Amino acid sequence: MEEVEKFVRSKLLPYFVEVHVKVVLKEAEYLLNFYPNADKEVVKYGCWLHDVGIKFGEKNVEGYARVDKSGEPHHLASLRLAKEFLKTTNLPEDKVRNILHCVESHRTSTPPDPETIEAKIVASADNLAHFVMAGFMIKMWEKESVVRKLKRDLEFPFMLPEALERAKKLSLEIEKEFDVKIL
């Protein structure tokens, strides 16, 4: 895990690692409690690598689905970088494939859908992180665009039930604190 963390930190802004990537890891650890048969190593690699391709300062209209100058969506840029990094590891090919699926399918607004429990955990943890960091997001972007994103996250058909329950509880707190309507 030290090597993947080092790689991710070399690609992302330090504050993004702290306010998002580490939150995704924490939420994934919470979800792993409900899915003891999930491959924890795959989930952790998937969490570390899921947003490694984000380019800051280049964003879409709503400010969060960042793409690079070539127009490559962040989940595909992350997939490309994850492939490069994973070639340097001694992980078995089946784990590498599963990690890459976690990275590629984490973005809930575009295909492919997460098919493995590990990919569902990573995608759900990523969505949950948006609720945990909603205050930070509201300070950075328009409140209405953040609310639209959170509502869309709640509608994600592959959101694990435990994640959905937690997201709804967090939504109630966000609604009170920021005078918004999510649920």
Which features does this protein show?
0% strand; mainly alpha; 183 residues; single chain; Hypothetical protein af1432
Characterize this entry briefly.
The protein contains nine helices and no strands. With 183 residues, the chain is mostly helical. The chain has one domain (2-178): Hypothetical protein af1432 (Orthogonal Bundle), CATH 1.10.3210.
Taken from the alpha-carbon principal axes, the silhouette is globular
The biggest beta sheet is recorded as: none
In terms of per-residue confidence, which ranges show pLDDT below 50 for 5 or more consecutive residues? Answer: 58-67
Termini, distance in Å?
A: 37 Å
Domains (count): 1
User: What would CATH call the class?
Assistant: Mainly Alpha
How much β-strand is present in the residues? under 5%
Mean pLDDT: 90
**Number of alpha- plus pi-helical segments:** 9
CATH arch. level architecture: Orthogonal Bundle
Estimate percent helicity.
55-70%
Query: What's the gyration radius in Å?
Result: 16 Å
Might you state the CATH topology name? Answer: Hypothetical protein af1432
The total of beta strands comes to 0
- Helix and strand content put the structural class at mainly alpha
SSE order, one letter for each helix or strand:
HHHHHHHHH
